[in-house]
Each structure stands twice: as C-alpha cells, then as structure tokens.
Automatic annotation (TrEMBL), chains A, B:
Annotated SUPFAM superfamilies: Tetrapyrrole methylase
One BP annotation, GO: cobalamin biosynthetic process
Domain of life: Bacteria
Pathway listed: Cofactor biosynthesis; adenosylcobalamin biosynthesis
Lineage: Bacteria, Bacillati, Bacillota, Clostridia, Eubacteriales
Protein name from the UniProt record: Precorrin-3B C(17)-methyltransferase
Stretches assigned to the Tetrapyrrole methylase domain: 6-215
InterPro entries per UniProt: 4pyrrol_Mease, 4pyrrol_Methylase_sf, 4pyrrole_Mease_sub1, 4pyrrole_Mease_sub2, Cbl_synth_CobJ/CibH_dom, Precorrin_MeTrfase
Pfam families: TP_methylase (PF00590)
One MF annotation (Gene Ontology) recorded for this entry: precorrin-3B C17-methyltransferase activity
Name of the gene this protein is made from: cobJ
Record-listed E.C. numbers: 2.1.1.131
Annotated keywords: Cobalamin biosynthesis, Methyltransferase, S-adenosyl-L-methionine, Transferase
Species annotation: Proteinivorax tanatarense
Length: 250, 250
C-alpha cells in the first residue's frame, strides 16, 4: 500500500527565517513539495532549494489549495505556506474548505502549523503596543462587504481596543483606510498613538510612530500593518517604545 | 570597560519547545540568566539546565522585571520569559515601564522577541477559527475595571468578531465568564460554534467543541483559551475542524 499523503498549512512568520517556529522549519524541511504565493516562496528560498516548488501569483488561493490537496491524495508530503500565521488571513481556512468539498480527508491528512502573525511581529519591533485587549481587522473588501468592516472598525473604537489593521491599503484600494480613519476619529482622541509598520522583520523594515490625526500623512502599502493604541497607550523609554499598559502600578 | 547588559523579553510559545521560534530558542541559549514564572521555567527546563535561573511564583511580575533590569545594569545578558507571545498579556510592557522609571536604558538594552500566542496556537489545534477579524479579551479584572471588560465583550459581539477569551476563569474568578456569557447571548446566536482549548500544545491538550448555549457546561480553567466563532463559523471536514470562512466561493 502506498503511503498516506499529508498537507501541512504552515505559517512561516513575518519574513526572516529566524522568526519561524522550529516546528514550521522542520515541517518545511521534511516536505517533498512546497506550494505558495511567489513572494512568500522567495522569503524562504534558502530553505527549499532541494524541493519541488509550485509557486503562484496573487489571487490564486483556491488553485494553491486544490493543488496541495491533489498532491497529498497522490501520497505526497506537501507544505502550503502563508506569511505570518497561516490561520489569520492565511491559507488554513480555505485549505480546509477545499478539502471538505473534495471529501479528501479519507485519503490524506491535514495539519495546521501556527506562526508569528504580522501584528505580533510588528508589536515586538515597536515595543509593547498590544499588551491589552486588541482587535485585528482586515480592511480588504475583496471578500467581505465594506459595511461589515466599517461596523467592526466602529465597534473596536467604541470598545477602546488597541486596533491592528491588516491590508490597510493597496494600489486598487485607497479609500478604505480614509473611511476607517474618519470612523476612528469619531470615537478616539486625535492624539492616540499610532504605529505604521512596514516590511516588519524583513529587509527595509520601517516603523513610523505618529498620531491618529496625522497617520494618513505617512506611507502605507500592502506590506504595512497599522497599530492604533487605546486611550492609555503612550511612548516610553525616551520615546523609543510604544507601550499599552496592562494596569500595573509602577 | 565592562560589556553592556541586555534584557530580552522572550515569548516561548504555547508550551512545547518546537513551537518556539528559532530566534527565541537561540536567545535563551545565548543568555546567562533566565527570569520567569516557575510554571514557564518548567516548560523549557531542558533548554536552560546550564543557566542561572531566577524563578518566581504568581503575582510577582514587577519583581521579575526589576530583577531582570538590575542584572542587565550589572552587564548580564538576561532573558525574561512569558508563555505564548511576550507582548500579549505578557512581560514586555511592564518590563518597558520598569526600565522607563529607572532610566535604565542608558546603561542597558532591551529587545522584544515575539512568539506564538495562545489564541493562534489554539486555533491551529482546532482548524481555522480565526481566519477573519477577531478580538482578544482577557477576562481578568485584577488590573482592569470590570466595566471596561464588559463593554469590550459587548462591542466584540455587536461587531460579529471571532472572540478569543484569555484568563476566562480561575479559582478566585468564577463569575466573570458567566457575566460575559450573558452579554454574548444578547448579541450572538446561541448556536454559535465555541471551542474550549486547554493546555494547548502541552501534555494533556484538550479541545472541546460546543455552542455558545452550552459552553459553561464544560471545564474551563486558567490554562484555557475560549474561542467563540462569528455568525459564519462552522464545523468542517466531518466535524474535525472549526472554520471561519474568509469569504471565498468554494
């Protein structure tokens, strides 16, 4: 009998290999085939030069998952990769949905390997901005109605959460961050501390500390995570670090 | 001149060493002193048998930070550890606040090393429940007014976020999860899928899938993370996995 194939959905962390978990590293090393978006494949190419690599452009998520499932049904050990954590705006969910549709799990297995997501990596580069209750919102309305996203931005602001914005802006989506900004200003002080973190833990990492009032004056792109503090977030240690206090008496 | 000391605030991940990042592993290996809560020290003891270990009981967070800062001012390389990510309900924020108070960073350095937080690790063991916008809320009111927490629970429910609850219950805090549950039921369907994840990625990992209606019938303790789905979260792949769809057409 031939061996049973398996797909691992692997979060490779923010970008450089040292922020990958040991489990993610070993899983990729032990896989026969690596499937992923070209940009992410490039981030780990030093790890996978001896592997079969199936690399895709943007917006081919379903094809990637189908390919990974097909290969596993043929008995292959496959890693399908996402940057950050694979379970936060990554490939894990779609992979499970595709496997469910194909009734594939009778003939192959699936395992999710977690990773350090963009907001956590960005927070570490900035200090400790998400030490207290926070929300994660993607501003991409490609797959989600804008009304749902805007309501979430409003509720997050009214709850005085720290707010991490994924996919804040791209060439095709310029207005969303402006509308979200207007909503935030209705419920949060314009002096709220904001960090704009681009290419975190990659070459050309750039961190800008600003305020809610001024945040749109700075460069934001599809490699940016925006972290908006709560009402108690402040700069600390000679303005080196952004900190949201947990509430300890110092 | 003596060497400059440094404190690394290190997130060791959910518990087993393989879910630690390579950077966290190497940082701990390269440190002279390890400071932490005894339970977390025990999780990594195979890594640190040749180190000076300063282990504390619960509720000694400030002492731990002061000790780490003092040692670094004496020129030592110190890792202060938290389980999960050190920047999410961990030691990073308090460490920076203590260092700020002591004006310590003229004589020592601080670096934050991110890790896989409990909600991300739990999600991977369950499937893909936090594939879409989510909030993280700690139900511990030791340091935060309960009114603030309760408002956040309400706003999270009204925004139809996936909700990850940290510190849901302990010996001394039994009522908080009951009040939160009442609030959630006002805004979310009682059939909402809920996962109760205890000791994730440790020995005796236990995952229970239930509904919002029934969640309090199951065992919840201080090693539990509770993940409450959004209105579209469902079970998938023969009920093996909990999935919150991103919105792709399958």
């Amino acid at each position: 009998m031939s061996k049973k194939g398996k797909v691992y959905a692997v979060g490779i962390g923010p970008g450089n290999i040292e922020h990958m978990t040991i489990k993610a590293y070993n899983t990729i090393k032990d896989s026969e085939v690596i499937v992923g978006y070209k940009t992410y494949i490039d981030l780990i190419k030093s790890l996978i030069h001896d592997k079969e690599i199936i690399s895709y452009g943007m917006k081919s998520e379903k094809e990637r998952c189908k390919k990974a499932v097909d290969l596993a049904r043929q008995g292959k050990i496959v890693s399908i990769i996402s940057s950050g954590d694979v379970g936060i705006y990554g490939m894990a969910g779609l992979l499970l949905e595709v496997a469910d549709q194909n009734k594939s799990t009778k003939t192959m297995e699936i395992e999710i390997v977690p990773g350090v997501t963009a907001s956590v990596a960005a927070a570490a580069s900035i200090g400790a901005p998400i030490m207290h209750d926070y929300v994660s919102i993607s501003l991409s309305d490609l797959l989600t109605d804008w009304e749902v996203i805007e309501k979430r931005v409003e509720m997050a602001a009214r709850g005085d959460f720290v707010i991490c914005l994924y996919n804040p802006k791209s060439k095709g989506r310029q207005r969303q961050i402006e509308i979200a900004h207007d909503t935030l200003l209705k419920h949060k002080s314009e002096e709220t501390v904001v960090a704009i973190a681009t290419n975190v833990k990659r070459q050309n990492e750039k961190i800008t500390i600003t305020t809610l009032k001024d945040m749109l004056k700075h460069s934001i792109d599809m490699f940016t995570t925006v972290i908006i503090g709560n009402s108690k977030t402040h700069m600390s240690v000679d303005d080196q670090f952004m900190v949201t206090p947990r509430g300890y008496k110092i």
